What does this fold into?
Amino acid sequence: MDVHTGWQTALGLTALGLPVLLALTAVLTARAAPFRYAAVAGPLGLALTAVVVAGTVLVGGTAALTVGVRLGTLTSVMLLLVATLALVILRYSRTYMDGDAGAHRYMRWLLATLSAVSVLVIANNLLVLALAWIATSLALHQLLTFYDRPAALLAAHKKFLASRMADVCLIAGLVLVQGAVGSLDLDAIETWASTHADLPVSIQIAAFLFAAAACIKSAQLPLHGWLTQVMEAPTPVSALLHAGIVNIGGFLMIRLAPLMANAPGAQLFLVIVGLTTTVLAAAIMTTRVSIKVSLAWSTCAQMGFMLVQCGLGAWHLALLHLVAHSLYKAHAFLSSGSVVEAWRIDSIAPGPERPSAGRFAAATVVAFLVVGLEWSVLGLLGEGSDFPTGVLALIVALSLAPMYSRGLASGARTAALVGLMGLAVSVAYFAWHALAAEMLSLPTPKVLPHLGWTITGLGFLTLFLVQANVQLHPEGRFTRVLHRWLFAGLYLDERFTRLTFRVWPPRLRDTATNPTPTPQLRQASA
It folds into this structure.
């Protein structure tokens, strides 16, 4: 064994240290002192991860096959994200759960969940990855039902059923890949895919099954209801779910990029399902008054957009989106209490007047001019002249226009500050775009790439026009009708809830004597 391979093996063993450390800490957690070992495991795990990341950069390895660990840019980024979230959530839980009689049980399952996620991230074998994903789901189920309340049990029950559907898709895909490739090692699958541009039907079906599993576990419509209702769990669990676990579907697509890039049917499926969820969830989110429920709908929309990026073959953007969303959503949930205080303060002060059609049009023109100028500069630098980047520029401009319109309605000084903020945000986005493209080099889809980008651009344009109409005419007939449907979530989750009661009724104390859902349960599923 040469020196380079020896270093790779050493780094692989170090990477294994994180899940082993978290699992061992879960076993050692005691009722008398539930936070003692977790307080050490968080910082130590982050230190081990830092060693792995630094070593991977220096050695430049892609896989340490002797210990079944896959190293590289994707693993380094994800492992660092998991270790950072583990440190923050474990520290927050120490304060949040202090004095709770079940704190030891909570910490054990939290550590077990984090351990399973870290195994999933470093695994070089698709079967190990799938088993770790299933273990993550089962451990999370214990956290979601930590408080034995009817609403929590119902939401966790629906998630359990949806997850098992995804598991069936995932395992079926593994069987097909094993039969065609002869191995489930990710490096072997990547090598096989590089020599088979035209995939056999069995692998096309496997790619579709993997995409379906990712969509189901990422809470895409219409199997989204559980994500918006699992708010009975402790806040750190919500942060972990929305910041890390629900992102795994996107991670799987990125990990399987060499295979997925040659499966146009699966890619188009990701674009359609993800874009539909993004548009509808973003619109529904505006009708919610609960902060945590609004954040949950935001997660549905963000996960949809991440899967759209995977379907378009923009793997580097999907990874960037995954990391940014994880950090943002963890902060949003862990600081949700202070958000309530901020809302109370803002509600006292008079808000900006409703923007007129003229101001909104002017703001839209300004947003397009700002982003168009940046896109032109990127084109001169050789980074932004292609069609996909042009669609991204369109999406960025559409997202900035409402913010600019509110700034114009608040006075010249506020408008100037908002304009500078929008400029800084868009410049940072394109800069991170270029950096992520350099860090992560994966194959792009070879069939109909322009079709996917065109569909995506039209979808976001439709969302923009609907939101503009609502903002300009909040009392109009279209807005009133739309609000009624959006407030009900298009009645999609009610249908899935009724189906779960027919196929596999949950065991709830409120339904022990009456199989019909109580008013409390019906309200929880609404």
